[in-house]
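re: the backbone from monday

yeah here it is again, tokenized this time
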């Protein structure tokens, strides 16, 4: 088979192989693309459903959270009308003070648990007062709610007489005033009344006096410690009046106001109480805490009286509202207003939403019934679902393999690029090394030692060339008569050279010796070298030079005129003849035959 036929066969074979492979590759790529498009559509659909559900839930979330909080309160037996009023109050509170509406409703759960029998208005009033007081006194709603329950338990009779709504508003305003006057907090005031309990109320002491005394004591101690000390004083005041021969009760047996008791003690012991008087008081009251209470309160009896009167004049919760409004953040109000709008809007459609979601949730019961009633059918449905999922997984695996193949090809291309870069870097490195070597050679020649070595090498080359071409040179100077005159002058010059450059001449002799040439660097040796020591200028004798005889074998192989002449003669004796080139075209193809005839 000729060369063109082989070429056409190879091309045809490659074409027959690559066409099916290209079709298969195209089909695989199309299958992969179709699967990816289907997966993306499915994912888009699922994402759309999830996004719609999430958006709807997020839009209704305020209403859902409010419905949960109201459901907890409803579990305590609260009527729907009370829940509606409570929800409205929570919206008003959030819009006015920028606090959580759901937190408002959650606090009503604790109030309803602590105070039974509240009507619709009282539940909202207690919850509103508690949350406003928490905002005004920098306390949390849970602490103040617990405080309201404790105070209601202590002053229940007074609350019933005044009306629970009016009483809680007065308590709120009074507590806010005490917090502002005594630099305490709602949390500390709650701890103080928790410690003292109902003991002061049982002794007939009004709420405003108790709050003034506890607030004054909190100037130097915590709320719980103030309650403990005041409680110790109340426990010993009955027997102390007998021991001190003083009267601390009225005609009906009720305890006198604290200001009157302190004035009686002050009248007996003076402005200050010394150690002995303190021991007497401790013995009379039965505890050191009671004496500490007296010492602290006697420092400013008039101030204590003024505080009691100021708290007694409080009738509503205006002070608490002023303090709460002063600490309101307007950005929080804006956020809560948006929350309230969504809660109010969602509450309108929440019943329908809950009904729809409830129907979907009820489908779970039907599905459970179906699986129990038709176990075999459920099994085959499960198999089908698993099969579909398996096909989806297989398609994903196929896509993964195709992607891995593409990544491998990309990685191969990157590797090839890296290899090409390495080769380029190596070529650059070699070029740099060449330049470095050239610079090194230049530096070596610039070095005096390098120059000396180069001079010695040049001298050796010059001596060899002089020896090799000596016959031609001597023939050109043989008929010059003044050579002998020059030799006489050169003899003295050479003696000076021998004396000054003896080491250099010795090095030349050694280098020539290494080359196989004997050289005498003395002036007599030089004369012998040039053949003028015994030969007249008119009759030169070439064979009389000893050094020439040393290189006779070389001269015998080199013709006169040197190597160049010998190469020229050799070229003239040889010739090359090129014959005819014939081309023979055959049918359907082209053959090339070259006929070359060589003749020497």
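seq for it, each position gets an aa:
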């Amino acid at each position: 088979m000729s060369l063109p036929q082989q070429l056409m066969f190879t091309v045809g074979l490659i074409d027959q192989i690559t066409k099916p492979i290209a079709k298969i590759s195209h089909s695989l790529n199309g299958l992969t693309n179709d699967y990816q498009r289907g997966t993306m559509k499915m994912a888009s659909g699922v994402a759309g459903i999830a996004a719609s559900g999430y958006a709807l839930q997020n839009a209704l979330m305020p209403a859902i959270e409010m419905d949960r909080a109201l459901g907890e309160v409803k579990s305590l037996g609260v009527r729907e009308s009370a829940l509606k009023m409570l929800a409205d109050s929570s919206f008003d509170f959030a819009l006015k003070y920028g606090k959580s509406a759901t937190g408002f409703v959650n606090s009503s759960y604790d109030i309803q648990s602590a105070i039974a029998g509240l009507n619709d208005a009282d539940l909202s009033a207690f919850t509103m007062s508690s949350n406003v007081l928490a905002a005004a006194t920098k306390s949390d709603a849970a602490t103040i709610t617990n405080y309201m329950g404790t105070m209601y338990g202590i002053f229940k009779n007074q609350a019933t007489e005044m009306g629970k709504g009016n009483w809680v508003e007065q308590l709120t305003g009074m507590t806010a005033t005490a917090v502002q006057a005594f630099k305490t907090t709602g949390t500390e005031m709650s701890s103080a009344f928790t410690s003292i309990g109902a003991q002061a109320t049982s002794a007939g002491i009004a709420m405003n006096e108790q709050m003034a005394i506890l607030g004054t004591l909190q100037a130097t101690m915590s709320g719980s410690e103030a309650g403990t000390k005041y409680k110790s004083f109340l426990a010993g005041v009955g027997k102390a009046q007998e021991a001190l021969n003083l009267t601390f009760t009225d005609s009906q047996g009720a305890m006198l106001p604290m200001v009157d008791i302190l004035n009686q003690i002050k009248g007996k012991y003076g402005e200050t109480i010394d150690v002995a008087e303190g021991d007497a008081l401790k013995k009379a009251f039965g505890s050191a805490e009671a004496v500490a209470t007296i010492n602290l309160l006697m420092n400013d009896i008039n101030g204590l009286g003024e505080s009691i009167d100021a708290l007694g004049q409080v009738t509503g919760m205006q002070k608490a509202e002023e303090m709460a409004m002063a600490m309101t953040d307007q950005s929080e109000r804006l956020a809560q207003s948006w929350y309230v709008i969504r809660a109010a809007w969602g509450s309108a459609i929440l019943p329908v939403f809950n009904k729809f979601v409830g129907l979907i949730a009820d489908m779970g019961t039907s599905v459970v019934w179906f699986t129990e009633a038709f176990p075999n059918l459920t099994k085959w449905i499960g198999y089908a679902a698993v099969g579909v999922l398996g096909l989806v997984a297989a398609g994903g695996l196929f896509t993964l393999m195709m992607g891995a193949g593409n990544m491998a090809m990309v990685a191969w291309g990157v590797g090839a690029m890296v290899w090409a870069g390495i080769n380029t870097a190596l070529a650059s490195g070699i070029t740099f090394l060449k330049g470095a070597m050239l610079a090194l050679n230049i530096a070596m020649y610039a070095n005096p030692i390098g120059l000396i070595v180069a001079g010695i090498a040049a001298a050796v080359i010059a001596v060899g060339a002089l020896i090799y071409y000596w016959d031609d040179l001597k023939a050109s100077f043989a008929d010059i008569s003044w050579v002998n005159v020059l030799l006489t002058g050169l003899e003295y010059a050479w003696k000076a050279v021998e004396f000054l450059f003896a080491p250099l001449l010795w090095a030349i002799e050694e280098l020539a010796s290494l080359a196989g040439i004997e050289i005498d660097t003395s002036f007599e040796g030089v004369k012998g070298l040039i053949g003028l020591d015994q030969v007249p200028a008119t009759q030169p004798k070439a064979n009389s030079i000893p050094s020439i005889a040393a290189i006779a074998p070389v001269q015998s192989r080199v013709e006169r005129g040197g190597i160049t002449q010998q190469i020229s003669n050799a070229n003239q004796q040889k010739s090359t003849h090129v014959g005819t080139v014939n081309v023979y075209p055959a049918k359907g193809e082209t053959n090339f035959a070259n006929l070359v005839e060589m003749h020497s």
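Confidence is low (pLDDT under 50) at residues 535-568, 570-600. Residues 450-572 form one domain.
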